[in-house]
Fold this protein.
Amino acid sequence: MMLCGLAAASLLLPACATVTRGTKETFNIVTTPSEADVSLSTGQTCVSPCKLKLKRKDEFKVTAKKAGYKDATAEVRSVIKGGGVAGAAGNILVGGIIGGIVDGSSGAMKDLTPNPLTLTLEAEAAPAVAEVPAAPAVEAAPAVEAAPAADSASATEAAPATNPTGGE
């Protein structure tokens, strides 16, 4: 009876990857520019740069917002990685099928990717400046032609001679 109880208890123990890696990981979010408001589709929020402790098995969407910038979004996937595979393989060798099932269902074999997540927010376009209509063109007055210059010889002939000495 004691042996059956010990066997049942060992089946309920966490699997190898679950013990060595855990079911959560630290997820890093960095934005350019920094101090953007970050929200996850899972409900968590933070201001970048930030670190969140998240379940390895959950996939989610990340949105970063900052005044004067367009929103940036990214999807984060939960994928099986090398460390999780090694933990699960050791677990199957030592703990059997039950351990493999626990590791697979708990998410301990998975990692969130990309981690760290880097988002670049693009600056919004400057508001278009309303064009001011140009002032109506003012037509120039017709040019007045100058009178033709009189011939210098004829100008002296027409003018009476003056004698500054009081004359003869």
In short: Strands lie at 24-32, 37-40, 45-47, 50-55, 60-65, 72-80, 110-113, 117-120. The chain has five helices and eight strands. Residues 15-120 form one domain. The first helix runs from residue 2 to 12.
